[in-house]
Amino acid sequence: MCLFLPLSTQVKGPKIGVIGLSKGAEVALAMGTFLEEIAAAVCINGATSMNGAPLHFRDINIPAVPYSTEAILINEIGLMSSFNVMGDPLDSVHEVSAIPVEKAQGHILLVAGEADQSLNSKMFAEMALGRAKKFGRTNCSLLHYPRTGHMIEPPGSPTCFLSFLRVSPMPTIWGGESKPHAKAEEHLWKEVLKFFELHLGPAGNWSSTVNHLKIKRH
């Protein structure tokens, strides 16, 4: 895909930015690590190791940490939490499955909601940041937000505290509190635009996009 995107008239190029949430953040981190075309990657509330499915790309093979479905929690009103499904990020099993962020040529912005009920996204992000620093890399940064859940989306989006997954017969809890979550979305969106502009260059009238998406929340 990255080979064809620069050919599009809608892509300024030659470098590309990518943003992902949840499993998409895991994919975005892998893209930012292994694809030289990716100059900037934003990874929101995702694992920083391969989980559920391995990564096979060219001569790269990273095994996956299997999901521990027996760790699913269901509360008294029938809502599901997958917080423990990926296990403890500090467990040694994650070491061989860790995405080697120190190999990234571009810049990576890790984002974590501290009240994420889907996974321990802050700890995963801190581990990736620590790994990058261990190898002397300064192209990896972290933003984390208290009382903010999993579904951090552009401001103006309805806050999603729970929803159904195709693989689950019951709704999944995403976590967060209304006001802190909304404030986090508004702050992060501005930071994302600044991050992309810094590493990809000016890209149209972004300030009007922010104002268009911004709504007042109570």
Quick take:
With 218 residues, the chain is an alpha/beta fold. Helix content is 26%, strand content 18%. The termini are far apart.
Overview of the molecule:
This is BAAT/Acyl-CoA thioester hydrolase C-terminal domain-containing protein. One of its GO terms (cellular component) is peroxisome. It comes from Laticauda laticaudata (Blue-ringed sea krait). One of its GO terms (molecular function) is fatty acyl-CoA hydrolase activity. Residues 5-201 form the BAAT/Acyl-CoA thioester hydrolase C-terminal domain. The chain is an alpha/beta fold. Helices cover 26% and strands 18% of the residues. The protein is built from four helices and ten strands; from the N terminus they run βαββββββαβββαα. It has helices at 23-34, 121-134, 178-200, 206-213; strands spanning 16-21, 38-44, 55-57, 60-62, 73-74, 80-81, 107-113, 140-145, 162-163, 172-173. It has a four-stranded parallel sheet, sandwiched between helices. The chain has a two-stranded antiparallel ribbon with strand order 3-4. β1, α1 and β2 (38-44) form a beta-alpha-beta unit. The longest helix is centred in the C-terminal third of the chain and has 23 residues, at 178-200. The chain is globular. It starts with 15 loop residues before the first strand and ends in a 5-residue tail after the last helix. The model is unreliable at 205-218 (pLDDT under 50).
